[in-house]
Design a protein that fits this description.
By secondary structure, the protein is of the alpha+beta class. 28% of the residues lie in helices and 26% in strands. The strands form six sheets. Strands 5, 11, 15, 16, 17, 18, 19 and 20 form an eight-stranded mixed beta sheet that branches. It has a four-stranded antiparallel beta sheet with strand order 4-3-10-7, with no helix packed on it. Strands 1-2 form a two-stranded parallel ribbon.
Length: 420
């Protein structure tokens, strides 16, 4: 009524008019009500509500922040992570989580084709990241997930302290002599992954979605002692070899007129994962510190995946430090990234994953270039290319061969088969 009286004929047929008619006032959240009240006190002709139905929302580049935008899009399209972030109860000790919730809600409900993540950038960027400079998206993701885990841990500790204080007050007024003990649920906060790779109640949000476990053993070749241990991970970093074994050409000085053609095997993520899990010989400057021998010894290191994550993040190590010029150089080696990936576990089981997001780095080095994301559609028959504010849809599967040679997959997001 306000717009009809003050701006006759302007509201009718506008995007704002459609938005207001689609809203259900009884189910509207306070945050949404506040946002619409801002619309009401403005001029409807200025609103750019240009998001098409079903279209994904882009993110404004705030000055070389494509590294953050590509990561946010990858996390948003991880449906389990998105739903758990939005559903998590807010705590005062979780400012990064609260800001991430607002970004996710905007990406889902915004009527605009793009939004600005400025508040999230201000609160989530690593302190050593210089504003306006190109950064590593993998480094940002690692810092972000660590920040969320630290906030979750702090919030859990605050809840435990609050529970203990309440119990102490109850004990003072009760007749049990103050002998009430905390249950196991209040004694600590674990990593969130058990031997089967599943997560239970009370585990961190990050570990519940991306957490896995590695089993690492060191076998001393001097005393035959074997040391074993486990560690949690949220992503696997796979090295790309700079040279191929067995690719050297034979020297044939007596046969100058002969041309040899060698069929090259295309490198795949499966090859890199196999190399990652192969036993590693530790010798020379890389000897193992044996506790039994009490010294450096030659040894064999073995790594196995003990617990598989529900969502597997793989980072391809494309940036290598060049000591000759003290700079990071990019490896443009072509690596095939299959949509279906089988991952072997320590118990002999094989876990199958499906690719749903690829973060691509476009450029010749880590200092310059651009990050963007390819996101698989919900029906699996299309892929969405999200480059900051621009969103394009391509029918069919994501085809790496159609991309420029300098546009190389950097981070791969796989979802375990069978997850809803």
């Amino acid at each position: 009524q306000y717009h009809s009286d003050l701006f006759p004929g302007v509201l009718a047929g506008s995007a704002l008019h459609c938005v207001l008619h689609q809203e259900i006032m009884a189910k509207m959240t306070p945050e949404r009500r506040h946002r619409l009240s801002g619309f009401v006190w403005g001029y409807p002709g200025n609103f750019k509500l240009d998001r098409m139905p079903g279209q994904l929302v882009g993110l404004v580049n705030l000055g070389n922040t494509c590294y953050m935008n590509s990561v946010l899009q990858a996390l948003f399209c991880t449906r389990m992570f998105q739903s758990q972030v939005v559903a998590t109860r807010k705590r005062n000790a979780q400012p990064v989580l609260v800001s991430l919730q607002r970004v996710f809600r905007s990406l889902k409900h915004s009527k605009r084709s793009s939004i600005s993540p400025r508040p999230f950038l201000d609160i989530s960027h690593p302190p050593w990241f210089d504003a306006g400079q190109q950064q590593d998206c993998s480094e940002f993701l690692t810092f972000l997930l660590h920040s969320l885990e630290e906030e979750d841990k702090k919030g859990t500790e605050d809840d435990v302290n609050k529970t203990m204080t309440e119990m102490q007050w109850e004990n003072c007024a009760g007749d049990d002599g103050g002998k009430t003990e905390l249950t196991d649920d209040h004694r600590g906060h674990d990593s969130g992954v058990d031997s089967g790779g599943e997560t239970g109640h009370g585990h961190s949000l990050v570990q519940a979605v991306f957490g896995g476990q590695l089993a690492t053993s060191y076998h001393c070749l001097e005393c035959s002692h074997t040391s074993q241990g486990t560690s949690s991970f949220t992503d696997l970093t796979l090295a790309i070899p700079t040279t191929r074994q067995g690719q050297s050409m034979p020297d044939l000085p007596n046969l100058p007129n002969i041309t040899i053609t060698r069929a090259r095997h295309q490198l795949t993520v499966k090859d890199l994962l196999k190399n990652y899990l192969e036993p590693e010989d530790l010798f020379g400057d890389n000897q193992y510190q044996c506790d039994k021998c009490e010294g450096l010894r030659d040894a064999v290191k073995t790594t196995q995946i003990k617990a598989a994550p529900k969502h597997l993040i793989i980072t391809l190590l494309r940036f290598k430090f060049d000591a000759s010029n003290c700079q990071k150089v990019k490896l443009l080696t072509l690596v095939d990234c299959p949509e279906s990936l089988s991952v072997p576990l320590s118990g002999g089981e094989v876990m199958r994953y499906q690719l749903y997001c690829v973060v691509v780095h476009s450029g010749q080095s880590s200092e310059v270039g651009h990050y963007y994301s390819w996101v698989r559609g919900r029906q699996g028959v299309e892929w969405h290319k999200i480059s900051d504010e621009e969103v394009d849809t391509v029918t069919g599967k994501w085809d790496q061969e159609e991309q420029s040679r300098r546009d190389t997959p950097y981070m791969l997001f796989y979802q375990r088969e069978g997850l809803v």
